[in-house]
Design brief:
47% of the residues lie in helices and 15% in strands. The protein is α/β, with parallel strands linked by helices. The strands form two sheets. It has a five-stranded parallel beta sheet with strand order 2-1-3-4-5, sandwiched between helices. The protein has a five-stranded parallel beta sheet with strand order 7-6-8-9-10. The longest helix is centred in the last third of the chain and has 19 residues, at 300-318.
């Protein structure tokens, strides 16, 4: 897991160097015939990456994006209307029938279908009209790292291709260098706080929420910690009841419109006595986990999760777990 997390900057550089003509053609297609509706098809870590892509599209292009409940197709055989629809499939292996089936259905019904997948020979890759390989190379650890990051970048490339935005394109080209800094960031402050933890909340908002969701999943997978992800707004409802003296919180507060509210939440929770791990850019008051900044704020979550992965891998080992082979889990999950 650690080796693969450290490979992510090189994997992203490979992806950014590949398929340029195809991305350009795809962007031209999207601008010439913009989809009236979009949906994402994904599970697990891939679904968190899909949420990031969806948020970018909605924020930058004003197009609503829905997360597809795949069982509508695979179990209930619902006849979803496909006129003007675009489906975006995110997967590492491209093997699961509940991703392949809906993609095939939408393509057969005339929707625009695309897949962001690491295995270009997989059933999902074959089912979609537009294929964009992640170019990660083999990923053996059960806990995905470099493939998740590559999916985040694919979602950003999708948005950039549609917008034809030169500034975002330039920022993506610089991203591997920022990631190299992020993988070396010192997040050791989290180890002492979380070494004995059996539960925690991971908090983000906006473009940072998908990273919080991914971090919570990794705490479960690799450390056996009951970690739950919440929006910085949602946690102030029912979940707030659980937070008292010593309760651990990891708050992702990268740059952007959501940052100020997250910093205020961190201060409030510290006053309550919670153990707050605040991931924020250098110089942020009370930040104890440094976040590396990319060329544009919207790509900062990529650097945030890049810094998180080595920490959670080290935490798993300190707690006596093998992060490469978590119990009861498999690398490829096939669900219907």
């Amino acid at each position: 897991m650690l080796d693969e997390a450290r490979e992510a900057p090189a994997a992203v550089a490979r992806q950014l160097a590949a398929d340029g003509d195809r991305w350009q053609a795809f962007g031209e297609r999207l601008r010439a015939q913009p989809p009236a509706s979009l949906l994402t098809i994904a599970r697990g870590s891939s679904d968190h990456a899909a949420h990031y892509a969806a948020y970018l599209v909605m924020a930058r292009l004003g197009r609503l994006v829905t997360s597809m409940p795949m069982s509508l197709i695979t179990l209930y055989q619902s006849k979803i209307r496909c006129t003007g629809l675009a489906s975006l499939g995110f997967s590492q292996s491209g093997q699961s029938p509940d991703l392949v089936g809906p993609t095939q259905y939408f393509r057969n019904c005339g929707a625009l279908t695309c897949a962001f997948v690491n295995d270009p020979e997989s059933p999902l890759a074959q089912a979609a009209e537009w294929l964009f390989p992640l170019h990660c190379g083999p990923e053996k650890s059960v806990a995905a790292t470099k493939s998740f990051i590559a999916q985040l970048v694919a979602g950003a490339r999708f948005t950039q291709a549609w917008q034809d935005d030169a500034a975002l394109f330039a920022a993506l080209q610089e991203l591997p260098q920022a990631m190299e800094q992020a993988v070396r960031a010192d997040w050791s402050a989290a180890l002492a706080v979380l070494q004995e933890a059996d539960r925690l909340f991971v908090i983000g908002r906006g473009l940072g929420l998908p990273v919080a969701m991914e971090a919570a999943l990794k705490f479960k997978e690799t450390c056996g910690i009951q970690a739950e992800a919440f929006s910085g707004a949602e946690i102030q409802h029912g979940p707030m009841r659980l937070i008292g003296e010593g309760y651990p919180l990891l708050i992702f507060a990268p740059r952007g419109p959501a940052q100020q509210g997250l910093l205020e939440l961190a201060r409030t929770m510290r006053e309550r006595g919670a153990h707050v791990l605040l991931a924020a850019p250098a110089g942020t008051p009370d930040a104890n986990l440094p976040l590396v900044q990319s060329a544009v704020a919207e790509l900062d979550p990529v650097c945030a999760i890049q810094s998180f992965y080595p920490m959670v891998e080290a935490l798993a080992r300190e707690r006596g777990n093998d992060p490469d082979s978590p119990p009861h889990l498999k690398k490829v999950t096939r669900t219907r």
